[in-house]
Hints:
Elements: E1 5-11, E2 14-21, E3 36-40, H1 41-46, H2 48-51, E4 55-59, H3 68-80, E5 88-93, H4 95-107, E6 113-118, H5 121-127, E7 132-137, E8 140-147, E9 152-156, H6 165-182, H7 184-198, H8 202-222, H9 228-231, H10 237-247, H11 251-268, H12 274-286, H13 297-311, E10 315-320, E11 326-331, H14 333-343
Parallel strand pairs: 2-9, 3-4, 3-5, 5-6, 6-9
Antiparallel strand pairs: 1-2, 7-8, 10-11
Helix pairs in contact: 3-4, 4-5, 5-6, 5-8, 6-7, 6-8, 6-11, 7-8, 10-11, 10-13, 11-12, 13-14
Bound molecules: nicotinamide-adenine-dinucleotide (NAD) and zinc ion.
Amino acid sequence: MTAMHQIRLTTATGSCDIVVGEGLSKGLHQLDPAPILLVDEHVLDQHHELFEPFRTITIPSGEHHKTLQTVETVYRELVQLEADRSSLLVGVGGGLATDVAGYVASTFLRGVQFGFISSTLLGQVDASIGGKNGVNLDGYKNMVGTFRQPSFVWCDLALLGTLERKEYVSGIAEVIKYGAIRDREFLDYLQDQMTGLLKLNGEVLHHVVSTSVDIKVDVVRQDENESDLRRILNFGHTFGHAIERQMGVLHGEAVAVGMVLAARLSNTMGLLRPQEVDRIEQLIIAAGLPAAMELDPGKIYQNIRKDKKKSGKDIHFVLLDGPGNAMVKTIDLSALKSIVYDLC
Ligand SMILES: NC(=O)c1ccc[n+]([C@@H]2O[C@H](COP(=O)([O-])OP(=O)(O)OC[C@H]3O[C@@H](n4cnc5c(N)ncnc54)[C@H](O)[C@@H]3O)[C@@H](O)[C@H]2O)c1
Ligand SMILES: [Zn+2]
């Protein structure tokens, strides 16, 4: 086994050991008690040999399956497998499977032990870290859920090899986000090593996932409950979520465009120099992500408004105050409208 990176995240809702490395899934055999796996169906197909020896429950793939109905089905299968308070559940898959597994584990019998094996780039650098679990309701994302830390998260880099190209590239958007909001040196590294990252070079991948995890952990540690600091993780996401819904593209693709728009806005507000906006844009293009889309400003504005209704009150816009430095600016709806029309 190659190098392993370990970091512990301790918050009010528990303590989580996060490990990044290649081939970590083999460690399942050492767990005591023997785990019950909740595995994404595609991951089970692709990595049968790793997960077959265990009791497994399949989680259907596709965001439309991220529902209470799926949760209910999983509860029933757990009863059939005679799971009890002492059982250990391990969610295996991308953000969908780990979000569902975390929710099931925090509610079944009022909560049982659980861990994650994260199998997508987005999952490893983002979704599996931070203790948010949950499912969608009536098309509204993550409406029902819990805050609870898994006891461990294993980011097994070996699993990423079977991920669809588009999904992998989409995850790179979140990686670029971490550099942009928190770590200028990491931005430089990404600029130098993008080719290696796109080829899944082992060393580069290890550094990229480890650094991203460290940044997310650092932010969540200081602010578990999404007040100002944790909000910086939403850089590119105000526009990103609206674009994702309107254009039906992958999350990372929408966030990439959202980050370019937010960087431009940062420049308009006198916070970010034009060459720094260009640099972020170039990095996004080098990753094979879209840096622009033909957007209908009216629809984008309505979409952001709708999102706002759910979260309440003002819009918290994440801007860059220099590369590697994020700040949150609160803006009201009328200001938002002119911003959207100026940028789109
Ligand atoms: N909890 C959080 O803090 C948080 C943060 C961000 C996103 N999320 C959630 O994460 C989800 C998105 O996660 P995602 O991008 O990982 O998508 P996903 O879990 O839906 O996985 C994407 C696709 O890749 C397949 N797949 C997964 N691993 C694979 C592998 N190793 N080889 C081959 N195929 C594989 C899946 O079956 C699926 O088709 C959303 O539901 C989102 O709400 C949660
Ligand atoms: Zn995101």
